[in-house]
Design goal:
mainly alpha; 3 domains; 6 strands; Tetracycline Repressor, domain 2; metal ion binding (chains A, B); transmembrane helix (chains A, B); three-stranded mixed beta sheet; homodimer
Amino acid sequence: MSDDFIRPEMSDDDSYELDSSLIERVLAVVRLDDTLGLTALLKPLHAADVADLLEQIGASSRRKLLALWGAGMDGDVLSELDEGLREEVIHALEPATLAYAIRDLESDDVVDLLEDLEAPQRDAILQALGDRDRVAVEHSLNYPSESAGRLMQREVVAGPEHWTVGEAIDYIRQDPELPEQFYHMILVDPMMRPVGYVTLGKLLGSARNVKLKALCEESFRTIPATQPEADVAYAFNQYHLISAPVVDDSGRLVGVITIDDAMIVLDEEHEEDIMRLAGAGDGSISDRLWETAKQRFPWLAVNLCTAILASRVIVQFESTISQLVVLAALMPIIASMGGNAGTQSLTVTVRALATKDLTSRNMWRVIRREALVGLVNGLLFAAALGAFGFFWYGSAALGAVLAVAIVINLFVAGFVGVGAPVILDKMGVDPALASGTFVMTVTDMVGFFAFLGLATLVLV
Amino acid sequence: MSDDFIRPEMSDDDSYELDSSLIERVLAVVRLDDTLGLTALLKPLHAADVADLLEQIGASSRRKLLALWGAGMDGDVLSELDEGLREEVIHALEPATLAYAIRDLESDDVVDLLEDLEAPQRDAILQALGDRDRVAVEHSLNYPSESAGRLMQREVVAGPEHWTVGEAIDYIRQDPELPEQFYHMILVDPMMRPVGYVTLGKLLGSARNVKLKALCEESFRTIPATQPEADVAYAFNQYHLISAPVVDDSGRLVGVITIDDAMIVLDEEHEEDIMRLAGAGDGSISDRLWETAKQRFPWLAVNLCTAILASRVIVQFESTISQLVVLAALMPIIASMGGNAGTQSLTVTVRALATKDLTSRNMWRVIRREALVGLVNGLLFAAALGAFGFFWYGSAALGAVLAVAIVINLFVAGFVGVGAPVILDKMGVDPALASGTFVMTVTDMVGFFAFLGLATLVLV
């Protein structure tokens, strides 16, 4: 136990980063086909660290490592692997090894593994499970994908609401099949509907004759089994829940979700938002080259179309540009400033929608505020660009055109930066996914049109 | 208790979003100066929902509400408020009200409140605390900002490693000052160094004569008090910890961090990343107009400088553009595609650095991979743009220039998209903060230079 202090697998300067000398030693024993040495190195590691190690070594070393160590492969390692790599690893394992590895997993972890697999692999794993586990897993898979029903564990510790502390403790003592982790005892009415819960700390700290009802937590909330997992994560984060009972349509207890699962979902939701805002798909650095190129292609293709659209605006002003070529050098400045300001508003808005801070109620106030922020910064940069035009190019008229164009574009950027994600959200489209393109297209087109249009009126 | 089922404050269609009819009712009683009615509406709400309500109503309604309800203000509501608004609310409260509100808070929540306040407000709150609490809070404030020492609660449940289940339960029963929430009993050696911990579930489910050591969790890890809170959140997420003992330099137990606090930090770290990637500061929609404009100004100013830099590249090719004005319309396409591809690589890289999946070990492999992804997509779009140039403008030479320029720019975008954040990270700068500008500047300049340079060689 005290060995844990030394944490040999951790490097000193960068906490929790896998020690690269450990990785070197693993690669060395793999090269020597030394199964025993490999097991000695991997066994002390947490499953999450083994998964990270598999993600960090090259594909050919990984294949060799799996061939050597496959039989020692733990189901937990599979659970921790990046989805892209997980399929590769599952393919690389013998069916018997795979069946052995997953037999130790809790049913909710098996569900999580199965969700992302193709049908043949899925069936192979289901066949490997015992009858009881298979039924439990299949039952969970009946709930909608990414719902509370898939996230929950089916093992619960519950008792009638009229019990005392002593009755509860005796019950827990006698239960031979307690879940691996539990933090509350759930109180249910005679219809099996949860009515509150008591922390184990309170159970342990109270006298045997105290009624459980008197110890109930204030922050109790039930989660419908069909609730999207993103909302589950939100509820845990908003109300500081540690675990929450899951109920079916009639309010009956069907399972429990614990905060560690909610934390994983919160992390995944964030990853999805940040990747979608950048148009980077579900990408991770362990995906294969072609997979990554394919994921990013669609957003680039959309961007090509909108960039061509914006270039059509410029084409309308070709004669202006041919008379004053410097306009061609200056117009990207106006467009780029608009794109940046739009991205700022957009990101704040996408985040506020995710945290439910932006609602129909305060929508107009927020839109007005963002447009005004754009206007304020527009006026500040108008002064800067006006001066730039005057002193660098010696033309007050050019300075004025730059100044007015930047005010218009930053104002529009603020307006569409918040408006586009709000409208997409109302339409049921993920605002992180599609707003970016729209905002950039608008700020490019408005930027080019305002600047070249004003220049045509004033300068030529 | 069963009232919780109805959850009157929740709207049906959008889970956990504040019901707007509730907000209307609150505003109505505020208009009527009806303190009793206001208290009746606010009292059943969770502190986090009251905070959301304060964030969603206008500034003048908020001032009126606080004047009416101030005395009922709960310290938990202050903890839940957005930082920007928190200062406003604290200013609006009478010193006596404020002192009363925070008296109920746990010491780690007081520390969290104090961290972001100016010195005079900070001292006012410290004075309001009892002697014991003030010493505890001041002790925590001695740890570095955003460290484990600030995050931990000082109340721990610990016992000697040689204890049995029975001894542990008797000890917990007799302790009059148990923490509000605890999930483990920490085992310590005679020097007060943690050597393992036992879940309360195992304590409850085991016979009295079982040794605690036999029930220890495998996933046990200690956290140094000076560890940055971002690393703490990472450890909880990576190793699925529920609570973790915090130790000082000599390995002695000084406090404990629970997963709910780690989840809040994880959420904040994500928010910081996504906002910094967009150059939106620490922005939230409840910040004031001027505050927001000021937060976004620096990034826009940097962007203005780099945009002017990129425009200087274009100026070098003025004579080429004046001979073939269509180049002015096409050059933003190349720059924009590069900017997008660079942002994709950059975002995946920033995320991989945050999750410690990208290390010195696999750095070169990842850089090569991203550059190759850029190359692959570059070749695909080269075909598209080549065709566009040929069929739309009837010029094979123009198509070829577009094609070669896009290959060069997407290759460079992949390379700097991963290279820039990696280098910044090595230099100790947050890669989310500064990489975006750098990548966009490089892809703009390379895009303009490659396209206009090739055009100068081939077309004019």
